[in-house]
Amino acid sequence: ECCVYNSVRIMGPQDSPAQIGHPLGGNHLMVVTGAELQAQVPGEEGELLIAGAQVGEGYLRRPDLTLLRFVQHPTLGRAYLTGDLAREDAQGISLLGRCDSQVKVRGQRVELEEVEHWILAAAGSLVVAVAVTCLHGRLLAFCVPSDPTPKVRDVLRATLHWLSQCSAPSQMRPSRYVFVEALPCTASGKIARGRLNDLLTDSDHEGDEVPDRPFSEVESVVAEIWAAELGHSPASLRRGVNFFELGGHSIAALRICRAL
């Protein structure tokens, strides 16, 4: 969207990496709010806007996203809305997180709404609502199925995993599909993404089969290493579980092999 370097700050041992400092020459950084891109006063939170000659032309073959992110500022001209929540003070600008639903999966940026759109399109009428969140760098898809019976859910889960392997980029493939009766919402009716992971307590491993005998000593070691790397509890793993459905990928496989 912009060139790699937009700001500079001399860092000390006690400084936070979230403090990005002041804009480089030829750049403009501003913390804004609202559709009018009004500048926030120092100390107030808002979205980070970047302006200057280094701002890109837009996204390739994505006019909708280009229109959303690349804007015309009333005084700075063409600018890019980063989606980063920021605050300015005497030390410059500090990043506080994201003010949209963009996350990073294995170093690649992913828009959660795009993943949700893909799931709804792939599942058709079998899923009436979906919300995606990111936990430990892995995507979790919370789905409200039109038919909540366990057999239908199992078939739907397997089908969505298969479809994602065939048609979705690797960074957009949910590691797990969690089926719920309803999605948590805010008072304004929007999906409360911050409360989605709370649903994992009851539904994350619902329907998992319990092993018919305890793990051997070697199996227990393998299960503990898998669990530590993939963000699960050892007790939740069972024989025959799919490495990739647990959120495994090539980098995780290398780490597990090294640990073993």
Tell me what the structure shows.
With 260 residues, this protein is an alpha+beta fold. The protein has 3 domains: 7-98, Luciferase, Domain 3 (Luciferase, domain 3, Roll); 103-205, ANL, C-terminal domain (GMP Synthetase, Chain A, domain 3, 2-Layer Sandwich); 217-259, no CATH class. The protein is 25% helix and 30% strand. The protein has 6 helices and 13 strands. The chain has helices at 63-69, 112-123, 150-167, 200-203, 217-230, 250-259; strands at 7-8, 19-23, 27-33, 38-39, 45-52, 70-73, 77-89, 92-98, 102-105, 108-111, 127-135, 138-145, 176-179. Strands 1, 2, 3, 4, 5, 6, 7 and 8 form an 8-stranded antiparallel beta sheet that branches. Strands 11-12-13 form a 3-stranded mixed beta sheet, with helices on one face. A two-stranded antiparallel ribbon has the order 9-10. Strand 6 (70-73) and strand 7 form a beta hairpin. Helix 5 (217-230) packs across helix 6. The longest helix is centred in the middle third of the chain and has 18 residues, at 150-167. It is globular and about 65 Å long. The two termini are 41 Å apart.
